[in-house]
Specification:
Radius of gyration: 15 Å
CATH superfamily: Beta-grasp domain
Number of domains: 1
Strand order of the largest sheet: 1-3-2-6-4-5
Structural class: alpha/beta
CATH class: Alpha Beta
Bound molecules: FE2/S2 (inorganic) cluster
Helix content: 10-25%
Strand content: 15-25%
Distance between the termini: 23 Å
Order of helices and strands: HHEEEHEHHEE
CATH architecture: Roll
Number of strands: 6
């Protein structure tokens, strides 16, 4: 109950942060990355490609071909997008915060308690916020779109003093 109260007090309505996904320019730049250069990513097998689109801070979009199991954090970092991932994907910071297109939010697995705890500390939390290191690509979320927030907030030990 307490967590819910804290969480809701920090929530910013999705549309106040990111304009409606439906109103965004749908002309996404399409790109594939040189996957062999990124140790955490796997080259998709022919016929098993999945797709993800990132809405960048300037509103432009980039679409990538990825494999099942790739995390949103690894995809972003492997393609040099602006996602810090300070804890290396161990769900211990909030610098991989993404805002998920509401169309896909309910298709994601429920966040763990650890992810919820980190999300509580994320700057600019929205109703569809998640952590990129906790989202792994699968067929259910093929063509997912996620937006990078304008700012992220890292968690330091001094935050707990
Ligand atoms: S990289 Fe730190 S929580 Fe995702």
């Amino acid at each position: 109950m307490f967590r819910y109260a804290v969480r809701t007090s920090n929530i910013i309505r999705f549309n106040t942060v990111i304009p409606s996904f439906k109103n965004l320019n749908l002309k996404a730049n399409f790109a594939t990355s040189s996957l062999l250069n990124h140790g955490h990513l796997h080259a998709p097998k022919k016929g098993e490609e999945l797709y993800i689109t990132f809405v960048l801070k300037d509103g432009s979009q980039k679409k990538y071909t990825v494999s099942e199991g790739d995390s949103v954090l690894d995809i972003a970092q492997g393609n040099n997008l602006d996602m810090e991932g300070a804890c290396g994907g161990s769900c211990a910071c909030s610098t991989c915060h993404v805002i998920v297109d509401p169309e896909f939010y309910d298709k994601l697995e429920e966040p763990t308690d650890d992810e919820d705890d980190m999300l509580d500390l994320a700057y600019g939390l929205t109703e569809t916020s998640r952590l990129g290191c906790c989202i792994n690509m699968n067929k259910d979320i093929n063509n997912i779109r996620v937006a990078l927030p304008q700012m992220t907030r890292n968690v330091k030990s001094s935050d707990f003093e």
